[in-house]
Amino acid sequence: MYILALQLSSVAAASCIGATSGIFAALMARLWLGERTPVVFTIAIVMAIVGVVLIAVGEASAATVGSLGGIAVSLAYALCFAGQSVALRRYSALRMEPAMILGGLGVYLLVRFTVGLEPLALGALVVLLFMGVIQLAVPMVLYMRGARHVPAVQMVLITMADTVLNPLWVWLVHREVPATSVFWGGGVILLAIGVTAWPSLMAARYKR
Questions:
Q1: Per-residue pLDDT tens digits for 138-190
Q2: Residue of 100, 90, 101, 102 lying closest to 155 (CA atoms)
Q3: Which residues of 137-160 are buried (b: 16+ CB within 10 A; e: fewer)?
Q4: Considering only CA atoms, which of 184, 195, 198 is closest in space to residue 50?
Q5: Residue pLDDT, tens place only, 95-126
Q6: How far apart are CA 8 and CA 194, in angstroms?
């Protein structure tokens, strides 16, 4: 869904709408897990969304969303990501890696026999395999392991740091200088993540 959202709308728009996953995660965690969302998390969610909006405003390509389909798919992606995060928290005592592997194979089969896949050159296949392991598989395993120790809402907020790092990678590879508002938005998101982590750090400090 995330890849499809990027095809139907701009990267910044998809990221901005995807940031609502924090809100969905808070609601799901409250209904499914009974986790109360402290006021600090609510404030952090609002701050994080404001930060992503600032980043979107700073990108000329994100002035408008490509289509209603892009909005719908981005919202569906945010909803699914929130559900996945809450499910990982709910079943934290179980090893969820097999479920993730089966889910990936299921998506492959669905795409293969509906939309279809074009043949790939060997070089492109090697690059995709490398990306699949380094960019998707390893981070997802780490995410699943971290889900055992972190509340669902905080999990989603931490992943929003990706929105801050995206412009950095673009600058490193393509020397594209981000707009000033990207720095402001990134700072707000990092501050929101820090706000959620601060109480835990203080509690651990006083236990020593």
A1: 888 888 777 777 776 677 777 766 766 766 776 777 776 666 776 787 778 77
A2: 90
A3: eeebeebbeebeebbbbbbbbbbb
A4: 184
A5: 778 888 888 889 889 988 998 888 888 888 89
A6: 33
